[in-house]
Amino acid sequence: MNTKTKKSQMMTFTLVGVLIMLFLLFILLFESNLFIKYKETTSLNNCRQSTMLASFKQPTVLATLTGAQESIEKSGKDINCPIIYKKIKEYNGKETDNYYINKVIADQMAGCWYKFNEGNVNLFSKVHGETTEYCVVCSVISFEEDAKNNEVNGLLNFIASKNTPALFGTKTYIEYLSGVATDVEMQKKIKEQDTSSINTASDYIVLFYYPKKGYYSEAEAVVLGSKVGGGVGGVLTLVLKYLPQAKAVSWVGGKWFIMGSSAVGGWIGSFFGHGKGYEYGAQVLLLPYHQEMLKEMKCEMPVPLGYRPD
């Protein structure tokens, strides 16, 4: 009886010990996943906040009037958006494998769009009269071991039918990822892309694409017109001063003539101003990772964002 009781107690202790170990293992894995999710969410929100702050910190009209604008290469220095690296190693050709890869890619694309406030931001320097195309690498998705050299189908169907994580709202991925274009010219910059399949022979990058066209704002145009008008007035004043036949006119010249021509120049300049002084487009692109391809895109990649093709 005692022997049976001891054996029963040992079996009970062993079972309890195994259950405790399994429970601890479950908690460890669960906590680990929670920690990873927490880190990823925190990183996304930190980036989003920095892009919105950078948008508010864009040079004021007064600053642009004095020529105080950062160079293209340094205009993203306030943005805190480190690149996310995702490695996929397992692939057995099952539908669940396709689903997992498509889910990783779709989430990275949605995360990139979320970081940049769904494209509703004023970022980077403008160049008067020119369109500058900016690119920011959000994620690098690499395929290794069994996941390498496969054709993964279904991404287009996935983003068209599945909803984004709750952090990004309740839309489907394709609805959420709609590009932004503030005018017709920027609409032409929005690129169509083939997401019908993923060839894992190549790694992929998720790219935030942001073409920006610079104009003179109305205030800048007025000041520029005033400067031009003032210069013209100054030259005419000198001409009138040394032309005997124009003494009657030169009598009302001097500073009043310059002020008048400056005012006229400013008035004319106001007609050439362009509202807020810029137009832009914004889009998330999924591209095979090739440095030559990135060079051919001729994108400006601000140094602080952590990536620039050699």
Summarize the structure.
This protein has 310 residues and is α+β, with helices and mostly antiparallel strands. It has helices spanning 2-56, 61-65, 95-115, 155-161, 173-176, 184-189, 218-241, 247-250, 254-270, 291-297, and strands at residues 84-88, 131-143, 151-153, 180-181, 197-199, 204-214, 278-288. Helix content is 48%, strand content 15%.
Task: Based on the model shown, name its key terms.
alpha+beta, five-stranded mixed β-sheet, elongated, 310 residues
Write the layout of secondary structure elements.
Layout lengths: L1 H55 L4 H5 L18 E5 L6 H21 L15 E13 L7 E3 L1 H7 L11 H4 L3 E2 L2 H6 L7 E3 L4 E11 L3 H24 L5 H4 L3 H17 L7 E11 L2 H7 L13
Helix pairs in contact: 1-3, 7-9
Fold and architecture overview:
The protein contains 10 helices and 7 strands. By secondary structure, it is of the alpha+beta class. β1 (84-88), α3 and β2 form a beta-alpha-beta unit. α1 crosses α3 and α7 (218-241) packs antiparallel against α9 (254-270). The model is unreliable at 223-230, 232-236, 246-253 and 265-273 (pLDDT under 50).
